[in-house]
Amino acid sequence: MTDGWTWDETLFAGAAAYYERGRLPYAPGLADALAGVLRLDGRGRLLDVGCGPGTLALLLAHRFEEVVGVDPDTGMIAAARQAAKAAEVADHSTWLRIRAEQLPAGLGTFTVATFGQSFHWMDRDLVAVTVRGMLRPGGALVHVSDLKPGSRPNPEECPHPAEGLPHPPVPDAAIGELVRRYLGPVRRAGRGLLAGGTPGNEPAVLARAGFAGPERVVVPGGRVLERTVDDVVAGVFSMSFSAPHLFGPERAAFEADLRRLLARASAAGRFSVRQPATEVFVWRPADVS
I want to staple 280 with a disulfide (CB 3.0 to 4.6 A). Which of 16, 185, 199, 217 is the partner? Predict the structure, then answer.
């Protein structure tokens, strides 16, 4: 995937338990926006690749006859199954612990394949070609992610994250410094180091695989969300570069230092976060006729 780094099964080990509490939700209206651009009518099949604990798939589950989520992490698949039961969609959802590189895995064809901030962890060229072959006529590959402030084309799509907040913002820079103090200056990823970060230039990958597009949709965020200390701690442990297992015997010490840092940043133990907009790119198989 990236020079000098090889995927391994510990990438998100132990992180699943922290996802629901720690990760910010996608922008409200995402399901409706996708239903509109993809013309979803309650039929068809959804494949969510790198599904994690089912966050995106479950958001869309009522828009399809069947949902299939695949992820290589045992904890993520267990969490997705449990969440599907709680959402009362277990009867038409399937959760499989496999790597994206193992597709098509006899799963058949799909109307839509989604990647919720997961594509960068895969052998992208292989997965893109494979998924293209799994799409039904008229199908689409959809990449969903938070819209990062640095990439915003205008302030309306992604308001400044620190303006008008009732509580202090999460001290992300200080948290990053604390993580590096414990884990070293180079980003951790599973058992390895990801010195150059995850790869970019997704359009070139998908064009090579025979996709055309993309059609871009931005679902506005901007809501101010309140976060407790426990929420912020969960967010840290939900990340691949600070997954619980990486700290080994120093995990308790790290968490204690993290909580002290957060107590200094907010005496009330409350933080405000402006929910980011959600950015969607829809790619469709190119016409080869």
Answer: 217
4: left (phi over 0), alpha (psi -120 to 50) or beta: left
Specify whether the CB–CB gap between 72 and 105 falls below 8 A: no
**CA–CA distances in Å: residue 166 to residues 37, 225, 262:** 35, 10, 16
Question: Residue 61: what residue type?
Answer: A
Supply φ then ψ for residue 200, to 5 degrees. Answer: -115, -150
**pLDDT over 80 at 148, yes or no:** no
DSSP state of 180: H
Q: Give the residue among 227, 222, 231 at the shortest CA–CA distance from 167.
A: 227
Contacts of 193 (CB under 8 A, 6+ apart): 4, 5, 184, 186, 187
Q: Please tell me the distance from the alpha carbon of residue 146 to that of residue 169, in angstroms, as a whole number.
A: 18
From CA 87, how far away is CA 70, in angstroms rounded? Answer: 18
Helix axes 251-265, 172-183, angle to 10 degrees: 160
d(CA 202, CA 124): 8
Mean pLDDT of 18-41: 96
Nearest to 218 by CA among 163, 162, 148, 273: 148
b/e per residue 171-210 (b: at least 16 CB within 10 A): beeebeebbeebbeeebbbbebbbeeeeeeebeebbbebe
Going by pLDDT thresholds of 50, 70 and 90, the confidence category of residue 5 is: confident
How many Cα atoms are found within 13 Å in the side-chain-facing hemisphere of 13? 13
- How far apart, in whole angstroms, are the C-alpha atoms of residue 234 and residue 252? 14
Give the amino acid at 176: G
Average pLDDT over residues 100-106: 98
Roughly what angle, to the nearest 10 degrees, separates helices 229-237 and 251-265?
140
The mean per-residue pLDDT over the stretch 71-79 comes to 97
